[in-house]
Prior knowledge:
Elements: E1 8-11, H1 15-26, E2 31-34, H2 38-45, H3 56-62, E3 67-70, H4 73-79, E4 82-85, H5 100-108, E5 116-119, H6 127-137, E6 144-147, H7 157-162, E7 167-170, H8 175-184, E8 191-194, H9 196-227, H10 231-239, H11 260-273, H12 279-303, E9 310-314, H13 329-339, E10 343-347, H14 352-358, E11 362-364, H15 368-372, E12 377-380, H16 385-388, H17 392-398, E13 403-406, H18 413-418, E14 422-424, H19 431-436
Parallel strand pairs: 1-2, 1-4, 2-3, 4-5, 5-6, 7-8, 9-10, 9-12, 10-11, 12-13, 13-14
Helix pairs in contact: 1-3, 9-11, 9-12, 11-12, 12-13
The chain binds uridine-5'-diphosphate-xylopyranose.
Amino acid sequence: MSAARQPIGVIGTGYVGLVTAAGFAELGSDVWCVDIDAAKIERLRAGEVPIYEPGLQEMLARNAERLHFSTSLSDALAHARLLFIAVGTPPTYSGDADLSAVNAVIDAIPPSKDHALVMKSTVPSGTGVAVKRMFDEQGKDGLGYVSCPEFLKEGSAIKDFMHPDRVVIGDVGDWAGDAVVELYAPLDAPLVRTDIASAEMVKLASNAFLATKISFINEIANVCEETGADVVEVARGMGLDDRIGPKFLQAGIGFGGSCFPKDVDALKQLAGNSGYHFQLLTSVIEVNELQKRRVIGKLHKHLGGLVGKRVALFGLAFKPNTDDMREASSLVLSARLNADGAAVVAYDPVAEEQARKLVSGIDFAGSPLEAAKDADAVVLVTEWPEFLELDWQLVAETMQGNLVIDGRNALDPDALRAAGLVYDGVGRGDRRRERRS
Ligand code: UDX
């Protein structure tokens, strides 16, 4: 067996775990997946994929022979030396990362000189040191430890696994680090091999920086609304500067998802716990919360109050190509709309099932036109391609009112205006109207 095709274990079968398992199976490894959720393991054994991620089902099916699912850690230990940890690290009430699932794995693993934990879950910088201490205390000092943070984006996770911008491996320079380097070698990605604490910090700092970029452009958008500039044009001009780059400069109604809100907060708390007040991140979080609520102000401005008004939400997921509703802006939006007396009807091509578990007091429609029927306003919440290709003339005819708030600056203002709709984006100013007049 060549080192690059060594078997691995993956503990936790959420987004990160399943994509990691599928990816390494695709590269030729046998993969032993372990999860404490017996029902989930049963579904996976039956070929059912519990999450929506483009290409994942196909990749798992293609490599079914190499993928093994179990609720028992011993199955993975018996077959693999490297155990990738991909369990959840949700925020606690204090904003720190909850490491109880990680700790449960550490407690469960027996002493061994032949095994190593490879941390994929996002954990605070310093976790590696804490894990090593726990190993020592539990008489398991032979176990290896590698930090290998995951940078995949939901919706493009398979592509991100196969074509990563970089692979970051933090270790102490032993066999385990070498083995992880070998595993990733076929991907031919830039490798950052470093110490454990730095690898952990690369992940948190990257997410915090990207979130900062979004809050920054959102604040520029808000200023554009005051000055009449168009943030789309501003971002285009800024993005051509090599040092800035065009990505993550899309103004909108705020970032959500399982990583940004959690990781920005976790880094802020981590800094605070170490005695440093990370002022910038406090603002990044606050700007994001306010950004979600600005839509409500726009609706009030245009509709002159929301009591008895019917508002259609186009999209609910925190971004397109996922059914993930974690920290989605739609959660805040729908609750605020309800509180202000509006009737809310929503359509999302994929996330309805997840949304039903989290939101109450809204109706769900089976199509965009059904949602728009008799609506006073439509709010584009998630830029699913389906909405971009809509016949807005039909939407206009179906609605009772004529207001469209483009929460993602994804629609064509001219096309909507030509359909007789009132278009209001995020930071779009009045440039187009000025040019026409
Ligand atoms: C993110 C990181 O990109 C990824 O590297 C990390 O591993 C996990 O967190 P993800 O949460 O899947 O990935 O989504 P991403 O595509 O980064 O978008 C996050 C949020 O930011 C979405 O709500 C999106 O709508 C928003 N966003 C993104 C903007 O509002 N503007 C932008 O320009 C980019």
